[in-house]
Amino acid sequence: MRIGFIGLGRMGANMVRRLLRDGHEIVAYNRTPERTKEIEAEGAIGAFTLAELVEKLEKPRAVWVMVPAGDATEAQIEDLLEHLEPGDTIIDGGNTNFHDDTRRYARLKELGINYVDAGVSGGIWGLQVGYCLMVGGDAAAVDPLVPVFTTLAPPKGYLHVGGPGAGHYVKMVHNGIEYGLMQAYAEGFEILHAASYDLDLHGIADLWGQGSVVRSWLLELLASAFETQGQDLAHLKDWVADSGEGRWTVQEAMERDIPAPVITLSLQARFRSRQDESYGAKVLAALRNEFGGHAVKTE
Prior knowledge:
By secondary structure, the chain is α/β, with parallel strands linked by helices. It has helices at 10-21, 33-40, 50-55, 71-81, 98-110, 126-129, 139-142, 146-152, 166-194, 201-208, 217-229, 245-255, 261-273, 279-292; strands at 2-6, 25-29, 45-46, 62-65, 89-92, 114-121, 132-136, 158-162. β2, α2 and β3 (45-46) form a beta-alpha-beta unit. It is globular.
């Protein structure tokens, strides 16, 4: 199948490589021409403007947008619309808010252009093991893309989960769950790291991956990190970003009156990691000193 692909970052480029290996024809474009030239050398059809990308696709065209969610995706789709025609399809593979999906779908439908949202999980390992794909959109728009989805995904790793926005909705909750899992592992291994025993954390992480009820791919990645970076992780700062999906999951839970304490607290832990020092902790120390004369530390 021939498909256009916009965005050749770490994930995007590897997705193109996986598609090329399975015989798909990819017309690739990146804002930075050097990235386009790199993937062109690996077999993709290079395009250096959006007009050129669209010109090199067969009607009805399908274009996968794989750029950062938010303003970048919004701008890319707007620019792309200047060149597409009724019957063409845009696939958004970024971590878009599902509310944006439903808005875009309605607008593009008026123009006769199909819109498909694809939640993608797999990170930098997707080239090797495949990407889990959670796809939303009308069946008429999704079905012609199944050859692309089945190539990108491992066996049983692709599902059309529902209508417009459903793919990114499921991916949002997926990432919220991921926050909780990661936080649980972080807390558990912090306890092990502080233990009075001389524990091999890489060995324990690897051990738990062998039939334990807490085994997971995340645990395998942690074992790899301990092996290659040392179990003290001394070179890393305790600063953790979030890309938005955890916040959206918590907001959705609140709007639907669903308690989600683990996901919520794991999100709050990430916020705390970004503070050089906690003003709230200073307030707590001051209060304990005021009412009980408890000891405080001063600079």
